Amino acid sequence: MQVIVTIDALRAARAAYGPLGLVPTMGYLHAGHLSLVAQARQENGATAVSIFVNPTQFGPREDFARYPRDMERDLHLLAEANVDLVFAPTVSTMYPEGFGTYVVLPSADEVLEGSARPDHFRGVATVVCKLLNIVQPTRAYFGQKDAQQTVVVRQMIRDLNLPTSIVVAPTMREADGLALSSRNTYLSAEQRTTAPVLYQALDTARQRYAAGERAGEALRQTIRAVLSSAPLVSPEYVSVADPLTLRELVTVGREGALLSLAARLGSVRLIDNLLLEPMA
Ligand code: AMP
After folding, report:
1. Of the residues 146, 157, 272, 274, which should be mutated to test ligand 1's pocket, given the most ligand atoms within 8 Å of the CB?
2. From CA 238, how far away is CA 108, in angstroms rounded?
3. Model confidence over 64-107: pLDDT tens digits?
4. CATH architecture of 2-169
5. Is pTM beyond 0.85 here?
């Protein structure tokens, strides 16, 4: 496994490979990341993983400085997973003095994570665009866990004619339903015990959908009601939206829906979602 920190060295190493799968991450790897790596390995001749905690996607009052990092452990896990290339640039390599070009999708800032986190998707789209330009992967792998991120990246790839295909992989969960996240390490023991209520709330709405409920507001209300049973949890938003446009739905139709939420447990902010699949 080659571990590369500069753009020139990455370009030189990349030339030795044909079809390449890239898994962009912010490190502190868990089984969710590794499931993307495993899928990338199956579908490409070679696999690259980037590790970069991207400052431009964090707001001024967010957790960039304290975001968990453990490069040694990450490299060990990636070597075990038979990754070929790791790209781990510094902040000044990705954003040198005088950096001034951003990729902006105004519509992303109007809903869900975009409206809760101003400039978040400007940072995500910019860094993913840069990583795709640097690594030039055949396919890039993203988790359904960050549902709006997949919508943003898909649109950017299409709008900017980038020659990479996006692959979206399912959310990996703990046995009790909690979606794996690097941020779960922030949870106290008490908060960790409560955190599966996020998934339970989404799953309860899915059950109501399976039982025939189609009203968006009734499904949102179901999610809110389950969350309100957990006093440690403060919901930020609860959404039943069109899976492509992410606009809130009055009625769930044949296109299915994305059930999603963000909630705080103390100072820890978690997100989760479930897709109600389109009907045949
Ligand atoms: P991050 O390091 O949090 O930026 O995540 C890197 C990639 O892993 C993103 O595409 C995430 O959506 C994906 N990911 C994060 N958590 C999970 C999970 N629990 N299951 C599957 N993919 C995940």
Report:
1. 146
2. 17
3. 999 999 999 999 999 999 999 999 999 999 999 999 999 999 99
4. 3-Layer(aba) Sandwich (3.40)
5. yes
